[in-house]
Amino acid sequence: xxxxxxxxxxxxxxxxxxxxxxxxxxxxxxxxxxxxxxxxxxxxxxxxxxxxxxxxxxxxxxxxxxxxxxxxxxxxxxxxxxxxxxxxxxxxxxxxxxxxxxxxxxxxxxxxxxxxxxxxxxxxxxxxxxxxxxxxxxxxxxxxxxxxxxxxxxxxxxxxxxxxxxxxxxxxxxxxxxxxxxxxxxxxxxxxxxxxxxxxxxxxxxxxxxxxxxxxxxxxxxxxxxxxxxxxxxxxxxxxxxxxxxxxxxxxxxxxxxxxxxxxxxxxxxxxxxxxxxxxxxxxxxxxxxxxxxxxxxxxxxxxxxxxxxxxxxxxxxxxxxxxxxxxxxxxxxxxxxxxxxxxxxxxxxxxxxxxxxxxxxxxxxxxxxxxxxxxxxxxxxxxxxxxxxxxxxxxxxxxxxxxxxxxxxxxxxxxxxxxxxxxxxxxxxxxxxxxxxxxxxxxxxxxxxxxxxxxxxxxxxxxxxxxxxxxxxxxxxxxxxxxxxxxxxxxxxxxxxxxxxxxxxxxxxxxxxxxxxxxxxxxxxxxxxxxxxxxxxxxxxxxxxxxxxxxxxxxxxxxxxxxxxxxxxxxxxxxxxxxxxxxxxxxxxxxxxxxxxxxxxxxxxxxxxxxxxxxxxxxxxxxxxxxxxxxxxxxxxxxxxxxx
Length: 645
Description:
- By secondary structure, this protein is mainly beta.
- The chain is built from eight helices and 44 strands.
- It is 10% helix and 37% strand.
């Protein structure tokens, strides 16, 4: 690949005083797949190719509109038309709606982060997420370790560093402080970002920040990008606009001084996540917590005395429910964003424990074992023995599996990224039926209700299939043709003959389970993708985007709000579902809070902060205990204390 070799050369003798003037082109927020994204990027490539003083190009994320494989392949085809090397990192649009589980981007471009030297300066860039889950940006644990290594091995601490990330290094990136702590160890002279779509001068705790405009044309303003001139004493930023007609126009809009920056001398106190809620009026205590070292983008599953969870590094891991001790791990070939489903299956181990690859029916034991079924971005559904992690069977799909399975009556139900929804035998992994009419990838857990399997996909539709045959019963749409408004990230709930969903269109909907017709829709609550059901199936819970948990009656033919409770979590868009267990309602938030609310009184919103990143849908163990996973890579068992009055 032509963008690799040209960047690397010996820097052992490079120092701050020796860096040479040079220029590069900087593109961001190209959004290929949006109405003008492809045309605008082709226009920019043609324009840059006409220059003789641009040795390389930087692209800082949101390369595509929805992160689909087709969009990414198209973007690469266009960018490969550049006559000079380029380097690229993904943005949230490339990772949030990724049918490949964020695996196609690094496969196409060789990596999703980079480091190289030019003109005596070092360029460092990493990913920003959020991966597969709506919420704030988040630099994965894996990338933070990579940053540690890059910073540690800087040949000269005075060498100027230009850092690139899609997100600004502020609290819109939930672990911004972790990134800043690393890039402040070196002479970071500028931090470039996109995401906001406008030219803007910023300061990230003293680090000069520059946000670049989106490449996309807007109104009467043509497509455009930034030319960056790195001089011996300054860095100058020039917007280059490409009108539909006429010559390109340039406007210098910002400059920063290139001086030796010693951040260790900065004594200012900057805001950091506040954990005082855990100590001022303690509502819970940590029974145990473990750091897996990798992003966790799925919920844990509890199988007897074992907690099972998957990680973005492609490993399924099991821990003791009692003390958090790691019990076993199983490596897949791709990232795991699929929440394990738990069931019982006839044992497929011969009594003598020998190799099972040539087993016969007569050699299979008659007892059953507790198993976990998990999907992986490698395109395989795995069925593992929950006690020891041994493989019982695997089923290969025709594409990544980022959805979560459901087990019911000896059948595994799961969607894929290949347009197929499958029903498999829990005993053997063999197909029971397949439905091949899904136009977008499936992300969430399906619902089994009134003999139908109900699930959403990123194609604007909610599907209902006959659970026995896979024959379509109905298909529902909210009327929008915008893919990212699809009812795909929430797990539907069913009660009183209705299916209930919330979606990014911010509407709660009740659908007749038999016919697929709309019973009612309401915008009374600012909902998004977080919905749950009471244990008695009479109340639908929804966690709103603006700090409130609401309860809606499931039976009436019009929306009836039973109660609402302001919880104090602020603005939130994470798809963490409310779950009721033995009279307690639990849920998590995008900023690491875990709540426990009494379902009878719907008062006393007790909370505990386990971190500062997205909490996946929690797994209650009892009315007081819950197992929690977060995108920061932690797995925690919390015990909520009794309410004191």
